[in-house]
Design goal:
single chain, mainly beta, 3 helices
């Protein structure tokens, strides 16, 4: 997969996605106007083309934005609050509601960490997508050490590309 993200300061301006395994891809652009910002989607998979648009809000995220979003809401998460967001689902040409919450305080390789869960807010989507689990260092800069759950690459099973939910580990030096 290939992703290209363009920011203006801390604000998302565009996102391009190519799934080289499935031969699909799409573009998202954020347009600002006097009455707010709007996202426009274009997505193609094979001969199928989809378009869509939504009002753009600051809590809308692409994968590149998840870590900084957690850090921006660190104090709320440490106090046990639920933090909502909407993840951009390019293949669906829409955003999907999710929520972060603190699962536990523990240690990871002798370092204090906080376990954070990300799960769909919709009961229906929750039947299709397993929660993601993050292991994040408690000390600043709150780097993600590991996450378990849906990722961009797919896995080929019986001739069909299926979503992949691996364990991803980061080795910070």
């Amino acid at each position: 997969a290939r992703e290209r993200v363009v920011y203006e300061g801390n604000h998302l301006r565009s996102f391009s996605f190519q799934d080289l395994q499935r031969g699909s891809g799409g573009d998202l652009t954020v347009q600002s106007s006097g009455d707010g910002s709007k996202m426009n989607f274009d997505y193609t998979e094979g001969k199928t083309k989809k378009t869509g648009s939504e009002k753009f809000l600051d809590e809308m995220l692409v994968s590149d934005m998840v870590g900084p979003y957690i850090v921006a809401h660190w104090d709320s998460l440490t106090k046990g609050a639920t933090v909502k967001c909407r993840l951009i689902a390019m293949s669906r040409v829409e955003t999907v509601g999710f929520k972060f919450f603190k699962e536990a305080d523990t240690s990871w390789n002798h370092k204090p960490v906080m376990m954070v869960t990300l799960e769909p807010t919709s009961v229906i989507i929750a039947q299709l997508v397993e929660p993601m689990h993050f292991v994040i260092e408690k000390e600043s800069p709150h780097r993600i050490y590991q996450y378990t759950g849906r990722t961009t690459p797919s896995v080929l099973k019986n001739g069909t590309w299926e979503d992949l939910d691996p364990v991803t580990v980061f080795d910070w030096k």
